[in-house]
Amino acid sequence: MNRPWLLLLLLLWQCIGISLAQGLPEYDVSDQKLDLHSMQLRALSDTSGQFDIRQPGAVQRFESESRLVDSAFVLPGYTAVHWFEIRLRNNGSVPVRRFVVIDEVDAERLDLYERDGNDWLQQTSGLVVPISERPTHSLNPAFLVDLQPAESKAVYLRMETPFRLMNFTIRVQASEVFLNGLVEKSWLFFFFFGAALIISLYNFFLYAALRDRIYLYYVLFGVFFLLSVVAYGGYHLLIRDSLKLHYLMQVPIHFSTVFLVLFMRRLLELPRHLPKLDRLAQAIAGLMAALGVAVAIDVSNLYYSLILGMPVALTLLGIALYAWRAALPMAGSFAVGQMFLLGGMTALVGVNVGLLPYNLFTSFSYIIGALLEMLCLALILAHRVRSLELQQKESRALLLKQQSDKAAELSQLIAERTHELQLANAELEKLSYLDSLTGVNNRRFFDQKLTERWHPQYLGMPLALIMCDLDYFKHYNDTYGHQAGDDCIRLVSNVLRSELRKAGDVCSRYGGEEFALILPNTTEAGGIALAERLRQQVLDLAIPHIGTLGRVSVSFGVASCVVGDGTESAELVARADRALYQSKSQGRNRVCGSALDADDDCRVAEYG
Fold first, then answer.
1. Given 3-state DSSP classes, what are the helix, strand and coil percentages for the chain, each rounded to the nearest 5?
2. 203, 327, 494, 515: which one has the fewest Cβ atoms less than 10 Å from its Cβ?
3. What is the DSSP string of 255-323?
4. Are the C-beta atoms of residues 341 and 373 closer than 8 Å to each other?
5. Does residue 5 have a pLDDT over 80?
6. pLDDT score of 170
7. Taking CA 131 as the corner, what is the angle to CA 125 and CA 136, rounded to the nearest 5 degrees?
8. Minimal CA–CA distance to 307: which of 319, 322, 295, 321?
9. Which residues contact 92 (CB under 8 A, 6 or more apart)?
10. Integer Cα distance of 238 and 227 in angstroms
């Protein structure tokens, strides 16, 4: 009984398929300035993955089962292989070559099929194909289609990708438009890269100067967002053409959101002012971090990130607006920045659903909105710095008023506090130049003092430099332990420091078990004499050591120059280091000067 109805339904379905086939427009591509980005396509989602347009009867099946879609479309939320048909015609009098461009880099594999008589021609592109092997060597997949005068051609595009709910646009372009588009896109991306990098670096320097974590959160937000835009444009493929790398590059956008939330919490002081909303913000940060890990494990999980992207952005905007209503400082400015980002995201959605025209501005509205948000947040931080400066000025004005009321008492108090601060600063300055283990000066102090010796006031004066190193110290550490090694270094440093007699003499721990001594107004002979005394005094400590001497010993290298004779500080250090190497190579526990030949004995002379 139901069979006639079934036949009628099948007939109706075939009629709908025929009408769809007849209703697919054919687009004239003869214009040399063609940029066709708003057109009708026939689309088929093959969930089995078995459909092949080259099989007998496949074209007829495609025409009966496909649907009409716009060239700007969103992939459905289920996994499938997607087929598209485009019909082109050359109404001109000369052959034309046109580019079929997919305005996204995320398709894993793309194949374009066109008939050549009874055969099919195939071109392959997408992430699985290296850029150098694609039909056009471009980041976005693009195919070449040739049409003779008055020729009509149907081309079939097969798209395979693990991504779902992604926005794609298929365009047909003339060569000039295609190449100009690549240039314009590159300029836009690199403008964003440059601007975002400059803003991030500026705030990194602010963090380095102020040590306020809010600047670090901003920098990390900017860096991760910069990486996400690199992935959006596919520019990482120019460095390493890797499918795995591309999938990993989908992770940074999640962590940029995490650091944006941390930035917002610290900026608005949510834990103190709005603890309930702060817990919501923490939940969003945790969710985005978890999604980032999930996407790193399996890129198909990006589907859930796309679903949650707009709700998360709206929630952050809602928190900012509530904080603004609660009169929290800078909440309104943060909300404006979030509106820029949401505006860019909304404009991109509007382009994909056909509500907004497709052009360079609208297609990259997301990046423009993100850059405006970064700029807005940077201005907030600049305003914050200015506010801190004003607060400091107000504090100083209040202090002056208090001083006018209690001049004598406060003057004394300020003098005492100033003296304490000076002492503390002096102590800090001193500590910054001391080695924490030995108490002698550190490498930084050594470099500074050696450089100062080349000041014009010291021209013509002799200068000696001693480099010394504990012999077989690694073996000592391995035998007696690092604590004993530290004690040994302290004992040796005490000996080296105790023998310095003149103002300007410097003893520094150069690194590890190595020390350096700067001896102004001292010749090489004087330096050798001092080094020999120090060598013997270290031996006299009789620190046990498994070795040839049975006790700890030190090797010395001495070099000298006359300031202004053309010798640079680095050269003097190199000469002393070579002399130390000579001491090591001759058996250790000895003193060698740089003026001696390799076969000469080490000499002892007067120091002073």
1. 55, 20, 25
2. 327
3. HHHHHHHHHHHHHHTHHHH-HHHHHHHHHHHHHHHHHHHHHHH-GGGHHHHHHHHHHHHHHHHHHHHHH
4. yes
5. no
6. 92
7. 65
8. 295
9. 30, 149
10. 14
CB 590 within 8 A of CB 536: no
> What is the reported pLDDT for 174?
93
Tell which residue, 301, 269, 308, has the closest CA to residue 285: 308
Listed as own residue / partner, the contacts of 531-537 with beta carbons closer than 8 Å and 24 or more positions apart are 531/466, 531/468, 531/556, 531/558, 531/591, 532/556, 532/591, 532/602, 532/604, 533/499, 533/607, 534/468, 534/495, 534/496, 534/499, 535/589, 535/590, 535/591, 537/495, 537/499
Which among 57, 56, 58, 71 has a CA at the least distance from the CA of 24?
71
Q: Give alpha helix (H) positions in 459-568.
A: 473-480, 482-498, 524-540
Q: Is the distance from CB of 271 to CB of 278 less than 8 angstroms? A: yes
Summarize pLDDT for 373-430 with one digit per residue, the tens: 888 888 888 887 777 777 778 778 788 777 777 766 767 777 777 777 776 666 666 6
Contacts of 199 (CB under 8 A, 6+ apart): 222, 374, 375, 378
Residue 403 phi/psi, 5-degree rounding, is -65, -35
Type of residue at 106: D
Check: CB of residue 51 under 8 Å from CB of residue 64: no
Cα distances (Å, whole numbers) of residue 252 to 157, 227, 232, 248:
31, 6, 11, 8
Enumerate residues 6+ apart whose C-beta is below 8 A from 108.
Answer: 126, 127, 128, 160, 161, 162, 243
257/338 Cα distance (integer angstroms): 11
Choice between 589 and 353, residue whose per-residue pLDDT is larger = 589
Q: Bigger pLDDT: 50 or 405?
A: 50
Token duo for residue 440: 């002698």
Question: What's the mean per-residue pLDDT of the chain?
Answer: 86
* Start-end of H helices in 326-364: 331-352, 360-363
- Cβ burial, residue 362 (10 Å; 0-12/13-18/19+): middle
State residue 74 phi and psi, 5-degree precision: -120, 130
DSSP string, 37-74: -S-EEEEEEESSS---TTSTTHHHHHHHH-EEEESEEE
Using a pLDDT cut of 70, give the percent of the chain over it: 91
Contact 591, 559 (CB under 8 A): no
Looking at the whole model, is its pTM more than 0.85?
A: no
What tokens appear for 361 in the block?
């501005």
Distance CA 548, CA 259 (A): 59
| Residues found in the chain | 608
